[in-house]
Amino acid sequence: MLNMVSLLLISAPVGFLGALTGLGGASILVPLLILLGIPVKEAIASCMVTIIATSSGSASSYVRKGITNVKVAFYLEMFTTVGAIVGATITTVIAPVYLYFFFAGFLITSFFRLKEKVTGDFAVPEYQDKLSRWLDLHGSYFDEAKSKLIEYKVQNALLGGLGMLIAGLAAGMLGIGAGAFKVTVQESILKLPPKVSSTTSNFIIGMTALAGTSIYFFSGLLNLTLMAPMAVGTTLGAVAGGRVLNKLGNRTLRILFYVIVAFLIAQMLYKGVTSV
Amino acid sequence: MNSEHRFDQAIGYVLITGVVISLLVEATGILLYYLSYSHFKISSERTLFIHGKDFFDFVIELFKGDYAGKRAVFLMSVGVVILILTPYIRLLMSVLYFAWEKNTKYIFITLFVLLLLTISLAA
Hints:
Chain A is mainly α. Chain A is 75% helix and 5% strand. In chain A, strands 1-2 form a two-stranded antiparallel sheet. In chain A, helix 1 (4-21) runs antiparallel to helix 2 (25-35) and helix 5 packs across helix 8 (179-188). The two termini of chain A are 27 Å apart. By secondary structure, chain B is an all-alpha fold. Chain B has helices spanning 3-37, 55-64, 71-101, 104-122; one strand at 49-50. The longest helix of chain B is centred in the first third of the chain and has 35 residues, at 3-37. At the A-B interface, helix 1, helix 3, helix 4, helix 9 and strand 3 of A face helix 1, strand 1, helix 3 and helix 4 of B.
């Protein structure tokens, strides 16, 4: 039977897998909690709080190393926080059955990100649109693998902001970080280098989760006996996952990713169909 | 080290400190829960939910409240409160940093998010 200790023990490998595959712990944990009999809205709300821990914990070292672009993060947070507040509000009022389908639908979008990553190659753009330039959205970081300073200029700030509004909406609504979606927007629209993109996304996720949490706090969906073990477990797991990430081959990670996402989509669709 | 880099360092440390303290408090809360009730059950009892109309009021009431015999619930609540306040403090620091830098654009950008979250947490 599920209790706080077993939940902590489940959350740790989930956080580990979430960090490894780039899915994030909550995308796996929400369906898993539902499978274990936790009401969907409570699962979503509790995961939202857990995300603050995993995201802030892992964002910390990249911010200190100067890889995260905090200005880009602050600009994009205007959009993700509005999205998350609207998304979380929708979740508190709609019938639970819709949430299963939205969750499954959103997971399907994470397949596109993978394709992009395999085929995409990063090139530094020369020009910069007016808004991006006005916002001083540019930067540089030292790439340890290439032993050189990488400079970049952000593109399409407005379109990127709108993309982040959708990311925030999905995150607040489904209790997830929507990291894969955020990274896709940042790499393909804003043209951030992959390393800056993933670390900046991690940084933004904490603030987005806070926005969603503010609504769930008001709605009375935050269960301490769920949040406490999950926060401890997923964060420990995510830290461990981050450490072994570079040691695993891309092929292994990709297979792992497909298997997990396919299972999660199937489970949410099944739950949705049987609840209609 | 320039001021921007020092600012990055400072918010990095705030994030990690908040998370570590919060998780230690949560873990202690879980242990105390077992010592108080002799089980680790996940419960949907209303006293185990944190909620309210105003988060800041909730925090003040939490520390004013009488938690004799309910220290486990108190600690788990404090852990979550610290977690919620961690990005909030990061945001407050950012507004102050941009004000000190006299960077008007980013004062407005960070203030917008700060106001939005403050209203959302308080109303």
